[in-house]
TrEMBL record:
InterPro entries: Bact_solute-bd_prot1, SBP. It comes from the Bacteria. Its main location: other. It comes from Nonomuraea wenchangensis. GO terms for cellular component: cell envelope. Keywords: Signal, Transport. It is found in: Cell envelope. Residues 1-24 form the signal peptide. This is sn-glycerol 3-phosphate transport system substrate-binding protein. Belongs to the bacterial solute-binding protein 1 family. The lineage of its organism: Bacteria, Bacillati, Actinomycetota, Actinomycetes, Streptosporangiales. Pfam families: SBP_bac_8 (PF13416).
Length: 449
């Protein structure tokens, strides 16, 4: 569902939620009389198992006092649709996990309690949180939600293939031009048959966002939406044209494997040795290293050729946990207690090492759990280091815009149309930028901006 429609549905019911609380304590037929906290999340598979482990540990520590009910709500867009329905029916969860590009949407609902306010009242110091990650979710000078599943873009590469192709396995590409040069050497062909491509990348707007940020290019206007409400995307630039041209040319020349928009297929192709490089999220770092039968190299994300090093930087992907307003104070206090647990060094060490996500509490890296995993997976520390190295500029903080989910889909359309030969980079970008303007205007109008 488009974010504007979700927002309008939410906004209509906000006032009702603020005065009508849902009491979720007791009443479960097992004699429990403490506070029950409902937590909606979008973590499936192994990540969902890791969430269940954290919740079980917390519940075990708070037997008889607080019980957290973690409920999987499907993918991020599905969870937003269900959140809209829950507000309309006045049956909201206490906590909900939302992807990073839903940040502006959540703030504009005015149905949330800023995490910074809860932290101040609850005596929780925000200083322990990774500053680069916290910066993304800071709106209006306040940290709005608790960063939870944070990731960064990386370049995974096959060190064995690098050696075979005569490339230095300790000097991976740092720019798109270097990546293109390496891809040609890494590609193995026999006639029209390609047994190994230079690289594989799923068509994912997030990867493009990160390239622009790494170049210091703001994705949208109004200081990347950080100085005011964004009114337009900033796509018609030489940098984006260069990115799209690099991608489409690599596919056309047979050095890049096109798997469409399927992230899983891209990761699987790399692990199977069908491609020697993979621009991807750090969230799957452990699975990628463990699933490959070759030595996997892990490097910082590449940057566009016209980018000056140090002028930009990548920002976090993933999601955060929001606290919904309108619940009794006792329940809100219980929900915050759970959030404090999730933000603790120990919980973050467990979460990070079980999944590959970045530990949002910097002190997690000092725990025995984290240090033990570093012995086997020393690259676990790289994503956080990469985020810390980003310049403190709007371009490296991500675009804050209510229509961001639509923008990401439209960026996918740009890349796909050029790769398939349906349009030139110039035409695809110009048309998409024009198409985004009414979508942004509609969203801004829906929230009175």
């Amino acid at each position: 569902m488009p974010p504007g429609r979700i927002l309008r549905g939410i906004s209509v019911a906000v006032s009702a939620v603020m005065v009508t609380s849902v009491t979720a304590c007791g009443g479960e037929g097992d004699g429990f009389s403490g506070q029950t906290v409902t937590f909606w999340h979008s973590m499936a598979g192994k990540n969902g198992e890791a969430v269940a482990k954290l919740v079980a540990d917390y519940n075990g520590r708070n037997t008889g006092k607080i019980r957290v009910q973690a409920i999987y709500q499907g993918k991020y867009n599905d969870a937003l649709t269900k959140l809209r329905a829950s507000i309309q029916s006045r049956q909201t969860p206490n906590l909900v996990q939302v992807f990073e590009i839903g940040t502006k949407l959540m703030v504009d609902t005015k149905a949330v309690v800023p995490f910074a306010d809860l932290a101040q009242a609850g005596g929780f110091s925000l200083d322990d949180l990774e500053p680069g990650i916290a910066r993304y979710y800071t709106v209006g000078g306040k940290l709005q939600s608790l960063p939870f599943n944070a990731s960064a873009p990386l370049l995974f590469y096959n060190k064995d293939a690098f050696k075979e192709a005569g490339l230095d396995p300790d000097k991976p590409p740092t720019t798109l031009a270097e990546m293109a040069k390496a891809a040609k050497k890494l590609t193995v062909k026999s006639g029209d048959s390609v047994s190994r491509y230079g690289f594989v990348a799923s068509i994912d707007g997030w990867l493009v966002e990160q390239l622009l940020a790494n170049a210091g290019v703001e994705y949208c206007d109004a200081g990347n939406g950080r100085a005011g409400a964004a009114t337009a995307v900033n796509w018609n630039t030489p940098t984006l044209k260069g990115i799209v041209d690099f991608w489409s040319t690599s596919v056309k020349d047979g050095v890049a494997l096109n798997v469409g928009r399927n992230n899983t297929d891209a990761s699987a192709a790399f692990q199977a040795g069908r491609a020697a490089m993979l621009p991807f999220t750090s969230a799957n770092l452990r699975d990628i290293i463990g699933g490959a039968k070759f030595e996997v190299g892990v490097a910082n994300y590449v940057r566009p050729d016209d980018a000056e090093q140090g002028k930009g930087g990548v920002f976090n992907g993933g999601g955060s946990i929001w606290t919904l307003a309108g619940h009794p104070k006792e329940q809100q206090d219980a929900a915050f207690d759970f959030l404090k647990y999730l933000a603790s060094p120990e919980a973050q060490a467990t979460w990070s090492t079980s999944t590959g996500y970045i530990a949002v509490n910097a002190k997690a890296q000092d725990t025995a759990t984290y240090q033990e995993v570093l012995k086997t997976y020393p690259d676990f520390a790289k994503p956080a280091e990469e985020l810390r190295a980003a310049a403190d500029v709007p371009a490296a903080q991500g675009c804050l815009m209510g229509a961001m989910p639509q923008a990401r889909d439209k960026m996918n359309d740009i890349v796909e149309s050029v790769i398939l030969g349906r349009a030139t980079p110039e035409t695809a970008i110009a048309d998409a930028e024009t198409a985004m303007t009414p979508a942004i205007q509609s969203y801004n109008k829906s929230v009175g901006q």
